[in-house]
């Protein structure tokens, strides 16, 4: 299981230093997620400051953009990084797409499937020099000329990873993507009973299997060598679980465990502005299901036991080289 580093950047100025540190500390992939600075620009900065580490968007909001702009940006980054870029996409939720980005929202799984197919079709026209002829339900790409055609990328096309929670979006990942981010707001039971069967259904639609498919293990990971670190991590995890659990789109994960009423209660709190009260509703049983907390050795053993037979990688916060090495040892030599 490879170990990745994900960053919620507050400024583009941080991207180069964070990525180069991750490379020096031995991480396999550095992911920038879309919060404050532009996630593609962050990867461009990171590419200029690194040499070996794989880089990616973890994730970029697909529906805030269109397939052509994403195809161009991903192709440029794959070229600039000399083949080290991974295009990670996610849908976000309807209120953000319609009210924050002022973009259309409908049938998110069907739209995402078509979005990825359109991106791949655009890349294909650049590879072959053929005329674009993508005509879908949501996107149409039928026009170009030599001025706008960058030609074949000598490093090929970047892999596409998709973030998914629900079974329909997960099927899309299995059908048209090269990998999937299992959302942190997932559990081992949900992964095995909902996610993996949906991935296999999607792969069957495409007439393929999941050999070579990359799956990023779910869960909120806290590496703690002291009681103080553990308590700080627990507080963050409870807040994260409360935040995601308040979103109706994620209620199915809670419902699988018989915690649907908790999701309703969390959602009600947010509607009256009770964001600071969410963590107080998350008990130890829920924390245990959604998170892995402990020393690097404890975390490594737990992750291996939960996901070692299915996940190819895990994303963790910055640990520094010594603790990352301890985690890696525990993942590869569980005891």
Low-confidence stretches: none
Radius of gyration: 20 Å
Please estimate the helix content: 40-55%
What is the structural class? Answer: alpha/beta
Main sheet, how many strands, which sense, barrel? 9 strands, parallel
Portion of residues in beta strands equals 5-15%
- CA(first)-CA(last) distance: 15 Å
Mean pLDDT: 95
Shape: globular
The counted number of beta strands is 13
**SS field, number of helical segments:** 13
What letter string, H or E per element, gives the SSE order? EHEHEEHEHHEEEHEHEEHHHHEHEH
Could you write a compact summary of the structure shown?
It is built from 13 helices and 13 strands. The chain has helices spanning 13-25, 39-49, 67-80, 94-100, 108-128, 167-176, 188-205, 227-245, 251-256, 260-271, 284-290, 296-307, 321-332; strands at residues 2-7, 29-32, 54-57, 60-61, 85-90, 134-135, 140-141, 160-164, 179-182, 214-216, 220-223, 291-294, 313-316.
Tell me what the structure shows.
The protein has 335 residues and is α/β, with parallel strands linked by helices. The protein is built from 13 helices and 13 strands. It has helices at residues 13-25, 39-49, 67-80, 94-100, 108-128, 167-176, 188-205, 227-245, 251-256, 260-271, 284-290, 296-307, 321-332; strands at 2-7, 29-32, 54-57, 60-61, 85-90, 134-135, 140-141, 160-164, 179-182, 214-216, 220-223, 291-294, 313-316. The strands form three sheets. Strands 1, 2, 3, 4, 5, 8, 9, 10 and 13 form a nine-stranded parallel sheet that branches. Strand 9, helix 7 (188-205) and strand 10 form a beta-alpha-beta unit. The mean pLDDT is 95.
